[in-house]
Amino acid sequence: MVEGSINLEARAETLATSAPVGPGWRIWRRFLRHRLGLAGLAVLGLLYGAILLGPFLAPYPFDLMHREYRHAPPTRIRFVDQEGRFHWRPFVYGLKATRDPITFQFRYEEDPSRIYPLRFFTPGEPYRLFGVIPMRVRLVGLEPGSDGRLFLLGTDRFGRDLWGRILLGGRVTLTVGVLGVVVSTAMGVV
Prior knowledge:
Elements: H1 8-17, H2 23-32, H3 35-52, H4 54-57, E1 78-80, E2 86-99, E3 106-129, E4 133-142, H5 162-189
Antiparallel strand pairs: 1-2, 2-3, 3-4
């Protein structure tokens, strides 16, 4: 046999013993080479993970109303206080609400005299994870019993936390999308 030539008999034997590659595997292999497709899959995975863990990720239940904090801005999470001292533990300042005498709307200002440290895996209001597992632990929150508030994206006109509301709305929206695909696939198969 000439050096560098291909041994056709050995190649044919390997092909005969290997499992045939189906069209699904070829589609998946081609998808894995597409970077934008993989990025989209990662984003969808993060979104579905966030909506599944929504009650755990939100500091407050989606329907809890803080009437004294209507239209509150997002709470700034800080590591450096007003005097320039660095804190290893993130914290938020308290909020002071004042009413504008002209528009009669509330204005919120940070109160640097009240510092509320953030806690991870803090106890909170009870909820059911995945609608089944009873839990009280939230990913992030303030010290239990403190009068401070943590609004990651602010509040709406009823004083409800927008971060929790977005997670709830995402649950409905993404579920409708998946159900639409399942129903249309079932109708197409029939």
